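Response to reviewer comment R2.3. The reviewers asked that we include at least one raw input/output pair. We reproduce the pair for Putative restriction endonuclease domain-containing protein here without editing.
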Amino acid sequence: MSTVVAEGVIPVAAPAHDTGAFDPLVELHGVWTPELADRYLPIPGMPPVKYECQDGHLIVSPYEGSANIFAADELRDWLKPHAKSLGGGAYTTLNIRLGPDSWIQPDFAVLREPARGRVWIPATQALLVGECVSPSSRVSDRIDKPAMCAEAGIEYFMRVEVSYAKKHAEVVLLRLGDEGVYEVHAKALAGDTFETREPFPLRFDPAELLED
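Raw output as returned:
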């Protein structure tokens, strides 16, 4: 059988009442927590995937393609010295805990203090999280995750879109407003200059996120 999880379809074992075996993807549907994730994830026999969770519902998605990985790595490198100057750190994929039954694995993030080996990072320690939009997670990256991060009080959210076929790159920095929703703080397309002073000085052409 197959279970539909968010934007992807993943094969899972038959329910426990059919086989007698405990299947966490079936038995824990809607009640996932970080504690259960520590116990049951990754699922044995599953291909490598990202595990995220919204209101107890597990979201499984494939890892990013090379275009997004390159962009995320470049941004992490640019953000790292600024993060260190604030006493924190810049990272690629981390588990950011947004609530008792919700977490995300952003493509890059800036923390207010170093992670120092922690598996679960509370949202209060995240200054900025970033997502590189991919076809399999477009709705989640553009709508769902920003809404979840805003609700959790994360001050900045950066959205990145790159396409080698279209020679396109776009960077949008959102900042949490007084109403508790994100507002556009800075943005630019390839060929233009992305520039911001907050949360730290950044100035670059989004085209630099496309590998030569």
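The first strand starts at residue 2 and ends at 5. Residues 2-62 form one domain. Further pairs are available on request from the corresponding author.
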